[in-house]
Amino acid sequence: MNNRSRILDDVSQLMTNAMGVAQGARDEAETALKGWVDRFLQQRNLVTREEFEAVRAMAQKAREENEALKARIEALAVRVEALEAGAQSGE
């Protein structure tokens, strides 16, 4: 019985070690693949998702500022027209 228990312990230890090796190989393969993909994308001058989102946010902010400036210019144009009309009627 003791010999059988020892064999089961050894098999269990081997399985545990094999799982550790498999996990290490998986991690290494994942790291290698990620590096390959990163190099592939850099060679083609593609942007990352983070870079895309940053530029997208900047474009959205610029669009909003442009709309605000457009509204301000229109309001100023109305004021100028009113001032010119008042100046002409006072002449």
Structural class: mainly alpha
Runs in which pLDDT lies below 50 for 5 or more consecutive residues are: none
Q: How many DSSP helices?
A: 2
Q: In this structure, how is the largest beta sheet organized?
A: none
Q: What is the 3D form?
A: rod-shaped
The N- and C-terminal alpha carbons lie at a distance of 120 Å
Could you tell me the mean pLDDT? 91
Number of domains: 2
What are the secondary-structure elements, in order, as H or E? HH
Concise overview:
The chain has 91 residues and is an all-alpha fold.
Describe the protein in words.
The protein has helices at 2-43, 49-90. It has 91 residues and is mainly alpha-helical. The chain folds into 2 domains: 1-46; 48-91.
Task: Provide tags for this entry.
2 domains; mainly alpha; 0% strand; 92% helix
Compile the SSE list and pairings.
Layout: H1 2-43, H2 49-90
